[in-house]
DNA sequence: TTTTCCGTATTATTATATAATAAAATTGGG
DNA sequence: CCCAATTTTATTATATAATAATACGGAAAA
């Protein structure tokens, strides 16, 4: 009823199947049938049929011993398809590698997806937490340098709405939970032309990011650098890193706003 | 009939939906409905319902202008889930970063999936082709250093079968198409303890890889390094790179053979 | 051993996806 | 710029194909 006319074009089984595929994450590495059913919000019967199908077509590994399911390498094949399809990634990749070499620090590129940023390129030249090395990682935009850099490109209205409504999750003791302080950081980013965080996601990590904007001024991505606060101080990061990030960001022009 | 009893546990709609998700690759970046239907081997009606569903749940982007579909950032979210789930990736990641710093060259880690290798870690410190920088990339095992390193760990029978039946595709003029030469390269790899290629995938690129074996001697992954043949010669690669790769490979012990 | 939990297999029932077709919209050629 | 051709979107009747309930078997725990 409420969904209206499109109902016949919506394939419920597929949606449920995708719920299963998508239920795995950094916390849920592998699951048995019952656990999986519960996590995906499905009854056992449905979970059985769908996992069976996904296993047969190769998207889920099934441990013959424990009968537990986990993501298969096909997950990565999909990622590959995405990376080739994203014009920005193709353009940015060589520049990021260059930048990583020049700075000798970890550089990343992120896109905005709803209220979260998603890292699409990672050039890890230093050790950190595993989550900071892998592609596809999602973080709440408000507390990341990339997110702030991009939000700072919004008009005042959208900026306000983002700051007030988008989620914040505490990652470290120093994550900014006070939304007025987040707003201030974003205003600052708008003035500077780059976003900045310190110890908000990983302790003693400084994040700095410059936005890439499309022709109409809307942010489409960000170029970011993560640096140890133990070896650098913020002033030096502002002076020595920011210009390079901005230079790279400005050198990337996207044909389609996407 | 031929499928037998499991038929009721197989959800066809899900399989078809996954066919659509998986049809995108480096050649097929974005597609209209008809093209998509044909590429996935579905009739137009099915393609319509399934793309509609996948778009609604966020797995496919749909350009409002052209009505063409392309992979969404959700593809990368899945990759993230895989990477967290793979014990090997977690163990290897910091070592790969270290290795990349030490060698100053591009290092990768790959897994075997059927007759193909899949790159699960890439540390790009030098510029190359885009395909050599992104995760999830698949290549025929027989003509890659990682593939040869792993196949060399098979017993004689399996090795023979692989050499005779696994696919080979010509990537450069110098890709080894002669299977007896491939066999020889693999025997050599078995003696050396590492696999080697030159210009077989990218012209003037030397690939060298050491296998990681589980407790029962079966290969589970490979640690690889790609080097410019213009700056290095093979003898030097053998002398200076191989020991480091083997050292790293030996330092990785997998709890579960998977 | 007994009990409990989890995964697997088997049904009848019907909801749900299907395929064919029609309508609308977009593109390209002349 | 208009018409023809192609592609996308919307609408149906129909039966296939997915469903949910239940029963079975095996493994682990008590």
From TrEMBL, chains A, B:
PANTHER family linked: HELIX-TURN-HELIX TRANSCRIPTIONAL REGULATOR, ICLR FAMILY (PTHR30136), TRANSCRIPTIONAL REGULATOR (PTHR30136:SF34)
Domain of life assignment: Bacteria
Organism of provenance: Chelativorans salis
Gene3D superfamilies named among the record's database cross-references: 3.30.450.40, Winged helix-like DNA-binding domain superfamily/Winged helix DNA-binding domain (1.10.10.10)
SMART domains xrefs: HTH_ICLR
Record key words, sorted: DNA-binding, Transcription, Transcription regulation
Classification via SUPFAM superfamilies: GAF domain-like, Winged helix' DNA-binding domain
Xref: InterPro entries: GAF-like_dom_sf, HTH_MetabolicPath_Reg, Tscrpt_reg_IclR_C, Tscrpt_reg_IclR_N, WH-like_DNA-bd_sf, WH_DNA-bd_sf
Pfam families per record: HTH_IclR (PF09339), IclR_C (PF01614)
Record keyword Ubl conjugation present: no
Protein name: IclR family transcriptional regulator
Domain IclR-ED: 74-258
Domain HTH iclR-type: 11-73
Presence of keyword Transcription regulation: yes
């Amino acid at each position: 009823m409420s969904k209206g006319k499109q109902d016949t074009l919506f394939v419920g089984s597929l949606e449920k199947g995708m719920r299963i595929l998508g239920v795995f994450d950094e916390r849920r590495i592998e699951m048995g049938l019952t656990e999986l059913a519960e996590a995906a919000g499905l009854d056992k019967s449905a979970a059985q049929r769908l996992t069976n199908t996904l296993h047969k077509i190769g998207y889920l590994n099934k441990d013959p011993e424990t009968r537990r399911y986990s993501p298969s390498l096909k997950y990565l094949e999909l990622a590959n398809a995405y990376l080739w399809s994203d014009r920005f990634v193709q353009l940015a990749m060589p520049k990021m590698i260059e930048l990583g070499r020049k700075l000798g620090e970890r550089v990343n590129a992120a896109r905005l997806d709803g209220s979260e940023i998603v890292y699409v390129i990672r050039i890890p030249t230093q050790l950190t937490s595993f989550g900071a090395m892998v592609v596809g990682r999602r973080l709440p935009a408000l507390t990341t340098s990339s997110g702030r850099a991009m939000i700072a490109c919004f008009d005042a209205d959208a900026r306000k709405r983002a700051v007030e409504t988008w989620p914040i999750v505490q990652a470290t003791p120093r994550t900014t939970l006070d939304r007025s302080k987040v707003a201030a950081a974003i205003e600052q980013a708008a003035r500077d032309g780059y976003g900045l965080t310190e110890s908000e996601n990983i302790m003693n990590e400084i994040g700095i990011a410059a936005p890439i904007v499309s022709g109409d001024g809307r942010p489409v991505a960000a170029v970011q650098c993560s640096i140890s606060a133990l070896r650098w101080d913020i002033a030096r990061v502002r002076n020595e890193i920011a210009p390079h990030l901005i230079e790279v960001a400005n050198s990337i022009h996207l044909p389609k706003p996407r």
